[in-house]
Here is the input.
Amino acid sequence: MIAIFLREMRLALRHPAEALAAVLFFVIVCALFPFGIGPSPEALARLAPGALVTAALLAALLPLDRLFAAEAEDGSLDLLLTTGLPPAGLAAAKAVAHWAVTGLPLLAATPVASALLALPTEAWGVAMLALALASAILSLLGTLGAALTLGARRGGVLLPLLVLPLAVPVVIFAAGAIEAASGGGESRPFLLLLGAFLAAALPLAPLAAGAALREA
Amino acid sequence: MQGMAGVLAADDLAARRGGRVVFAGLSLRAAPGDALLLLGANGAGKSTLLRLLAGLLRPVAGRVTWDGEDVAQDTAAHGARIRYLGHQDAIKSALTPHEDLTFWARLRGGDPHAALEALGLLALSELPCRTLSAGQRRRLALARLTLGDAPLWLLDEPTLGLDSASVARLGRLLAAHRARGGIVLAATHLPLPLPDARELAL
Here is the structure.
């Protein structure tokens, strides 16, 4: 599993364009809001929590349809599945790698995006924490979606349709946490709910993805 | 060499692909040192049989056994004893052959350097795989077979794109594998360097 994770990291470093594209997408979407809504800080700050979380989740979805499809196309997936490694282990390694390659850079770009959306600076810390949890959950759900849509003809279109409805609670809790922090409220309960969601997805998503890979 | 010797058997196998029965009632047996050539027209089910024996597909009927035990019982143990070479070479163009084999050696055991040497890839070991020719890529895929001494080699068109020197090198590799008690099953349309191999027509 560690070997698979390390290979993913090495491949991502050789081709950084994919991860960079997701980060740039995130920043650009956040930069579009002031143009659409007008530069009034109050209006922007009101929208910022939801916009930040939605943009980050959409950006993290971008590289997901290649997660297993690239491996299936060049024959690597067959070889990986014949090593006797449990498919759930393979899926877990892929999910962690996806988070490291797209989730972490998104976190690094969060202050920039927050500034573009005029989010009060005292909420930036909570925003990063909430996005860290939200993107980790999305990596797990997305890995499940990628495994399920592997081999489907329009897998790239099907994947968001499958994953985004599942991500609704993530958006609610993450945006709630950021909003509470920027309004001087208590963001802890929201973050704990996100943590609970992550704790449930951590074992379940790879297991389900592994079962889907075996059938693909 | 743990578990090098073993008997592969398949009883009354049937496989389906895309709703169509590809073959049914197929039985085979391979003892240590055996080589089996799978012959048949395009679409006869040679690749399907290899994927089935590799555990990538489940049979519709029948079962595959190793030393009498159903391989579906313990997929991890079956995975450890097989090396599968598919149609595709499973190469990441951004990695070098050495990195590729180091990765597989971490999963499979064995020495990447020796594997490179066995297929004559040492001179290319630090070049990105995107610069390799089709035959060189095939040699890299073949080099993975040698990692970690597995008893059962399942080869799908192993000589595709190879030059005659490489075919001879593969012949020595296959002979050494069989001398150690290994089994080779190969699907092919081209003559393979496998002396006294049995033929199985599909």
The first helix of chain B runs from residue 46 to 53. Chain B touches chain A through 28 residues (CB under 8 Å).
